[in-house]
Amino acid sequence: MTCDELKRIPLTSILQHLQIPCTKLNSREAWLKNPFNGGNEKTPSTKIDIHRNIWYSHSEGYGGNNIDFLMKFLNTDNLSTILDWADERKNIFSFHQQTVLDKTPIIQDENDRSYTILAVKPLKNKALTDYLTNVRKIDLEIATNYCQEIYYRTAKGQIFFAVCFKNDSGGFELRNSYDKRSLLTKDITTIDNSNKDVVLLEGFTDWLSYMTLKKNAGKPYLDANYCILNTTANLQKSFPFLQRHNIITSYMDADMSGLNAYNFLRSHFENTHVLKNGMEKLQIKNCEIKDVNDYLIQTLIRDENNKTQNGRKLSNR
What we know:
The chain is an alpha+beta fold.
């Protein structure tokens, strides 16, 4: 990998690979705790300018480009060491040898910003699979069956990658450690398993979490049809698909938007269908959860703590 190629990689992508979390991220800038001392500070002091792809650490009094960052982070002044390090990870950082969707890349204007989709591939990128399994606690087999990885370039030439989930109109929902966005047409995603029961969820991470919970419990998870809204604004779009079923089980998020969506759903279907509030049942078990993925994460943490405590009790006997 050349210096120019390394400099063109979004620094946020490098941080994602290094598993360095950002405490704040928007389209202009990102902030993180000092990565050079293990993040040992209360207030984030390192800023990344997203558009210029440069950084500055106020606590260190030092900044620069990707090469400067890696030299300091890897504690070396040897440029060859940095380029070798990046070259060893070219399967993550290189985007030139990808399977492109078509001969002509897809360009989408979104709020006057152009995005060119470079490639959509099977989900194998370690930074993304680690995000799903380690952060979201989603079963990897389930994730790889229903998700892909996408590489896209912004109008400013920056290249990003993310987990992607396709909707019924051919658009994509994107997630990674730092970002949440959509590309192309926004729509619902329907999964038809030839069942008369349907489970309704807000986002695809909730859907993957729901199936992970069932798999972890040793229960079948393809015993219902699924409808993923990808935004509560799509609720009415889901009605023709929901209408075909006898039982609708809803897992709207435990916030005002989710509550309003469930109330609208109930006003439309409560007299014609069996409507169940699945999120309400999850909240009986854990009142602090905000969505299905949150319930999955907290359940696994609780189970792990119980195992640890039981192990200590056995060792003290």
